[in-house]
Amino acid sequence: MKVRKAVIVAAGLGTRMLPASKVIPKEILPVVDTPAVQLIVEEAVASGIEDIVVVLSPGRTLVLDHFRPAEDLEEHLLRKGKHEALSALRTSSFAARFHTAHQHQPLGLGHAVLQARERIGNEPFGLFLPDDIVDAPRPCLRQLIEVAERRDAPVIALLRVPRSEVSKYGIVEAKPMGDRLYELTGMVEKPGPEHAPSDLAIIGRYVLTPDVFELLAEGKPGAGGEIQLTDALLGLAKRRKIYGYEFEGVRYDIGDRAGYVMAQVGFGLKRPDVADRLRAYLEQVIAPKSRMGQ
């Protein structure tokens, strides 16, 4: 198995981030000064991905526009001698080849992934849900690809979550295989704490095999009339082994307001041009409250 292609699902309506996402797709919302989707593409390219299929809603092209060269702006920055800004701008244009697919109706994540079938063909592929940003020393998708290529099998990123929060996630039933690796034996979508088979949640990074498309095409709409990726993965698990990997890194859910703010802080504290002022501000805000609680 060699993974060279990836799918980024950017067709959602972003309702959790309204009103900001009314006009601007949530994938373009910045983490400090970098659009979230750029962080995703950087991870894909660093993981060895050569072709990226972006699944969009019709008419919402800003995500792709971000990666097109801006010749007039580059020329302006060059004339003004703003070389640092020019360098930052040019890093948003990547060597990876971009392709598009369109989800004309919001019929669920599984349906969105299915729209990339023609572009992916009969190859394994990485899948990104751009609400999930992962800050990791080794790209999260690369971690999954290494397992997938070694095991010749699909792999799903896993994150331990508090039992009180399992109802927000797809939760797996899993058999430990050692060294952060699990063989998946079941999945439950958003169970109550009393029904959750584990505290291992699925997050938005996958390496999938092309046979998942057949299962998605055959899938029947479930709750809300949507075609669920989880249902296809359950079907895939009956045909072949699927693994979960408890990735190394920090995950931020930027489709959630609190998670989005946490991402600003987490990434801001890693930026030399921002970190000192941000840390001083946080200490100023938090310290009085800490003293009041004493």
Structural commentary:
It is built from 11 helices and 13 strands. It has 294 residues and is an alpha/beta fold. The protein has 2 domains: 251 residues, Spore Coat Polysaccharide Biosynthesis Protein SpsA, Chain A; 38 residues, no CATH class. The strands form 3 sheets. A 9-stranded mixed beta sheet has the order 5-4-1-6-11-8-12-10-9. The protein has a two-stranded antiparallel sheet with strand order 2-3. Strands 7-13 form a two-stranded antiparallel ribbon. Strand 2 and strand 3 form a beta hairpin. The chain starts with a strand and ends with a helix.
Features of this protein?
single chain, 294 residues, alpha/beta, Spore Coat Polysaccharide Biosynthesis Protein SpsA, Chain A, 9-stranded mixed sheet, two-stranded antiparallel sheet, 11 helices, 34% helix
Mean pLDDT: 88
Strand pairing plus helix content: what structural class? alpha/beta
State the distance separating the first and last CA atoms.
Answer: 57 Å
Number of domains: 2
What is the CATH architecture term of the largest domain?
A: Alpha-Beta Complex
> Stretches where pLDDT falls below 50 for ≥5 residues?
none
Number of helices: 11
Query: Taking strands numbered 1, 2, ... along the chain, how are they ordered across the largest sheet?
Result: 5-4-1-6-11-8-12-10-9
Shape: globular
* CATH homologous superfamily label of the largest domain: Spore Coat Polysaccharide Biosynthesis Protein SpsA, Chain A
Quaternary structure: single chain
